[in-house]
Amino acid sequence: MLSRKSFIIFSTCCFITVCLFFALSRYVIVQQEDRVENYRAEAIEINETDVIKKRRININKYLGWGFEFNSKRRHWSYKNGFDASLSIDSYGRRVIPIKNLSKRSKFLIFIGGSYVMSDSVDDNETYAYHLANRFPSYHPYVYGGWWYAPTQHLRRFQNIPLQNEISQDEGIAILLFNSSHARGVIGDICFTVHDTNINAPKYSVVNNRLEYQGTFNELNSLQTRIIKLLPRTFKASMMNYCWGRLLNDEFGLYGSHETLDNEEMKLIIAVFKELEGVIKSSFDKSRLIVILHSYGFQFIKDLYQKAKIAGVDVYKLDGMALKEFEYPQIYHYSPEGEKLMSELISEILLKNKIIDVLENERR
């Protein structure tokens, strides 16, 4: 039987725990309500045949997740004042609304996350749309999605060859990479805490070779088990923390304190090189370039130098020039930002003679 003193201590602890739980729950609810007001996204039209649905299930098995194919989506924000319509084709790619693209002789493949997908603008406002107009011999293909890391694209392309999806037999592939993608390669807890990412693939370097290990869920690491056991309230709280960490100038996408050890750098570079090999196995006349979405901090500088030494065809895109065109708390670009992004990518392609200057003059 508890003494009076023990009972008081026990009751006080229970009361404090309950208060903390309700305070945390209220905080998460407020944060979620703010996020809903700040950004929403949904599919508004889905036109999948049985064949396309089967294809989507097969492709998303390797990616870990994905949007519906042959669909239209609405992404909007009351706070930021945008209401974007996104079209997704029968292979899960962003549609470029330009006639007769299939007749173009070369491909321009874009690989990456939501920046590559152009999350918050209409189909005719994306950087890929502007580049398609700038380079009339090239057909852009946009392989992008929320949080997609290069390992997810690598796993897809290893199992579903690109030549099955692209009509041209030569061209350029561009991987656009930033520090949030590094989290996806490594398996940072701020990546795997999202339900969409728990089935993403994990690779490791074993005896100087890149090897697929399984999905984060299949590997069932202590980190994954803890995340799966977390109550929804605490999981939502952790996601809020991670978003704050990702988007904070000190620690996040632009973070000067973002660091990786040598093994992590080695893994990321191995992924770059393996992705290059997979694309070249599909297209003899192809070239993969890696563009680091740079904000001038040490993490990107170190990766750039080490990747270059390792023989990766790597370049930097000045993200600081784009910051004024980001939607607050969403950190995706406005139509003006997308246009500037196309100009920065074009400058890299022309300045380094990746695309012939004459191609730019044909438009």
- Looking at the structure, what is the overall shape? globular
Give me the count of strands.
Answer: 10
Q: What radius of gyration results from the CA coordinates?
A: 22 Å
Biggest β-sheet strands, sense, barrel: 5 strands, parallel
Strand content: 15-25%
- Overall mean pLDDT stands at 85
Q: Helicity level, as a percent range?
A: 40-55%
What pattern of helices and strands is seen along the backbone? Answer: HEHEEEHHEHEHHEEHHHHEHEHH
Count up the helices: 14
Biggest sheet: strands side by side, in what order? 5-4-6-9-10
Low-confidence stretches: 21-36, 249-257
Distance between the termini: 87 Å
Q: What structural class results from the helix and strand content?
A: alpha/beta
In short:
This protein has a five-stranded parallel β-sheet. The protein has a three-stranded antiparallel β-sheet with strand order 1-2-3. With 363 residues, the protein is α/β, with parallel strands linked by helices.
